[in-house]
Write a structure and sequence with these properties.
This protein is an alpha/beta fold and about 750 residues long. Helix content is about 60%, strand content about 5%.
Length: about 750
């Protein structure tokens, strides 16, 4: 192995030693970037939540977006370093404008020919960036294909941007149908822009027209191709080729391996850098990315033809791009200008060489390295170009690597100090802002909720108190009582539902069967009494309505926040209260007293049988045939004893009718008292519920449990306002603290200095 090969292999081994440290720094700065972005989003959230508020105003500076940008700077720098130290080859990039012999030089260096690296006259030939590696055992090519998405984003989208064509088609079918104009419109193509935009539009239309030829290849796969078949995948079509066949559009990148015609150089790679000077969108950006990430040394090819014999503006632009890629190492260590003499007149070669010497390298400091050689002569390329370059790199690469790594360290240190300084200012601001702890916030929420519920329930109870006053009149209930009394009275006067004559005939018939009037009279009083009690139960629906109104008022008094405990269950107030009680009992930390208070409220008995019937039955006592106390004697018997004749039946009818009318009157009086009594009952129930729910021994503790267990359900709407600001502010505190730890761990000296301020 030659001395150059041994030295370059040693350089590559030393590079790889840096990889673990670089990867660790990349992970660290990715973490920092994520935190700074989250911090930026959090501060932006506060500004959106509380525009113009005190907290938002204090957080105007420093801007966390600046911290995120600093982190991205570090990641960009470290990514470039990683690309460098991760390379297993020394890569030479071949750059230059079309028709200067770039492809010819690559052929001479690699041993490939026009079938793999096309060269020719007329338009540019190379369509895909290619990497060519020396390999004695594995000749072939691997093509990384675009996916449909990457094709639209990386190939088609830049054309849309440059040409002002609006949104990119969302998929290939939309791209195939897209109505691209045939010419640049006047507004888009005014002045100097038209000569640039018109060829771009032509290429875009060609890509659309040729879509069927490459659509099936947009798979994202890595495709193995024989070297003999590589041309169609990496080059523009020849003049006589099918116009609608452009498979190269499906290729993202090509990697070629072959045996270079060079001895003792096993770790060498060549990178073809197409696009310089071509009228394709983002050509220079792609060129710059290749220079920065893929190569160790750039060879700029310049061929002095009759029209290209002077150092031109375009050539200066090429060197400027290289300077942008090699920001820290000496660009003269990184660059060679090859004056390609192939098929050129000597006077043109001399003119170009002299022009470079007198204009480009005229300054007293070290100039650009210039070599004059025929790029098509493989021996000349090997001896006059490759060997001197490799000899130079054996010495220069360690120096350039050291500078690049030191620059990355300096960039990370500088950006770290910037972030630390911004964090220091942010911390001062945060210390001026009182941020309650989660426990404090929970307690405050519980106290606020309890106070809100107490105030709302007290308003509800005051309404119940107003109804419980003796002057309260329930007009609806009175009207219903009057309706029921009228119904009962008409029933009585109509002969108890069968007519006086029919009733009397039935009575006389029963007298004859029993040979007595008392059995019939007793049975009839019993029937009338039971029927009247049943008919007066028509007020039951109003009593139940008053109970439902009580429950509805209670639920409203608890407030919409408490109702969220039902989680949407229960269409009625009763169901809502039952769901609330169940939620309180089944909470991770149960609230049994609050649940018991709800159970108590649900146990309100306001139906006819419970509230009215006991008192109404006393009004119906006059319809009993006998007194229950035997000491009173058989007081009712003389009243009911009548002759067993038609006259006796008529007399009994009149007597029972009178008793029934008296009972109906007394029952109406009982019912007339019910609204006031009901209001008193409901007021008592409501007062007891409010007292127990808000002021029991365990109420304060259980409201805290309630706030802790159901905070997401009770406060789902607090995305704005003070609570939301405090929530995000706590997040800002946490993110800032985590960032300080990351920066301080890496830079303890900085941390000590900042802490001591």
């Amino acid at each position: 192995m030659s001395d150059n090969a041994e030295r370059l292999d040693a350089v590559l081994r030393r590079r790889r030693e840096h990889l673990p440290a670089v990867d660790a720094q990349l992970d660290r700065w990715r973490h920092i970037l994520r935190l700074t972005e989250e911090l930026s989003d959090a501060v932006a959230g506060i500004r959106a939540t509380e525009p113009g508020g005190t907290v938002a105003g204090l957080l105007e500076t420093p801007d966390p977006a600046g911290m995120a940008k600093a982190a991205r700077d570090c990641l960009d720098t470290l990514s470039t370093v990683r690309s460098r130290v991760d390379r297993e080859t020394v890569n030479l990039g071949v750059s230059g404008r079309a028709r200067n012999g770039k492809s010819t030089l690559l052929q001479s260096l690699s041993g490939l020919d026009d079938r793999q690296i096309p060269s020719g006259r007329g338009q540019p030939v190379t369509a895909v960036r290619s990497k060519i590696y020396h390999s004695l055992t594995d000749p072939g090519a691997r093509l990384t294909m675009h996916t449909e998405r990457s094709f639209l984003e990386e190939v088609i989208a830049p054309y849309h941007g440059e040409l002002g064509l609006g949104p990119v088609p969302r998929d290939l079918s939309a791209f195939a149908r897209h109505p691209y104009p045939r010419v640049i419109d006047d507004e888009a193509g005014e002045g100097a822009a038209r000569p640039t935009l018109a060829p771009m539009l032509a290429r875009l239309r060609e890509a659309q027209q040729a879509l069927p030829s490459y659509r099936a290849h947009l798979t994202g796969e890595i495709r193995a191709v024989d070297l003999a078949d590589i041309r169609d995948w990496v080059a523009y079509p020849e003049a006589d080729a099918e116009p609608d066949r452009r498979p190269y559009l499906a290729v993202r990148e090509a990697t070629i391996t072959c045996a270079f015609p060079i001895e003792d150089v096993t770790a060498l790679g060549l990178v073809d850098l197409p696009g310089l000077g071509e009228l394709t969108p983002n050509a220079e950006e792609h060129h710059l990315a290749g220079l920065r990430n893929d190569i160790d040394f750039a060879i700029v090819v310049k061929r002095p033809t009759d029209t290209n014999a002077m150092w031109a503006r375009e050539d200066a632009d090429a060197l400027q791009l290289i300077g942008q890629a090699c920001t820290v190492a000496d660009v003269r260590d990184f660059t060679l200008i090859l004056v390609n003499t192939g098929a050129c007149l000597p006077e043109n070669v001399t003119a170009l060489h002299d022009d470079i010497r007198d204009r480009l390298n005229a300054a007293g400091e070290r100039g650009y390295w210039v070599i004059v050689a025929d790029g098509a002569d493989r021996d000349a390329v090997r001896e006059q170009v490759l060997n001197p370059v490799l000899h130079h790199l054996a010495t220069a690469l360690p120096r350039m690597d050291e500078v690049v790594i030191e620059d990355a360290i300096a960039v990370c240190r500088d950006r770290g100090e910037r972030i630390w300084s911004d964090l220091h200012e942010l911390s001062k601001t945060l210390r001026a802002l009182a941020v309650p702890t989660l426990t404090e916030q929970m307690i405050a929420r519980a106290e606020t909720l309890r106070a809100q519920v107490a105030a709302s329930l007290q308003t509800w109870v005051e309404g119940l108190r107003g109804r419980a006053d003796k002057d309260y009149e329930d007009e609806e209930f009175f009207e219903r009582v009057a309706e029921v009394h009228t119904d009962v009275r008409e029933w009585i006067l109509s002969g108890f539902g069968e007519g006086p004559e029919a009733w009397q005939e039935r009575a006389l018939s029963r007298f004859r069967v029993d040979r007595a009037s008392l059995p019939f009279a007793s049975a009839e009083l019993n029937r009338v009494r039971v029927e009247m009690a049943r008919r007066f139960s028509a007020v039951d629906d109003l009593l139940l309505q008053r109970r439902d109104e009580y429950w509805a008022g209670l639920v409203a008094g608890l407030g919409t926040r408490m109702v969220r405990l039902t989680n949407g269950h229960g269409p009625s107030p009763r169901d809502a209260m039952a769901a609330m009680a169940e939620a309180l009992r089944e909470a991770p930390d149960p609230c049994p007293s609050l649940a018991e208070s709800l159970d108590f409220a649900l146990d309100v008995r306001l139906d006819y049988r419970t509230r009215v019937l006991p008192r109404l039955r006393r009004a119906l006592d006059v319809l009993f045939p006998e007194e229950d106390d035997p000491r009173d004697g058989n007081a009712a018997t003389p009243l009911l004893a009548v002759p067993r004749t038609a006259e006796g039946a008529a007399e009994l009818f009149n007597r029972i009718t009178q008793l029934a009318r008296q009972a109906a009157y007394d029952a109406q009086a009982v019912l007339a008292q019910e609204p006031g009594a009901t209001a008193q009952v409901l007021f008592a129930y409501g007062e007891q519920f409010e007292d127990a729910f808000v002021r029991s021994d365990s109420s304060e503790a259980e409201f805290r449990r309630l706030a802790a267990a159901f905070q997401d359900r009770l406060w789902p709407d607090e995305e704005t306002g003070p609570q939301a600001v405090m929530e995000v502010l706590r997040r800002v505190h946490r993110l800032a603290a985590e960032l300080r730890t990351l920066i301080a761990d890496e830079r303890p000296r900085i941390a000590a200095e900042r802490t001591g301020r």
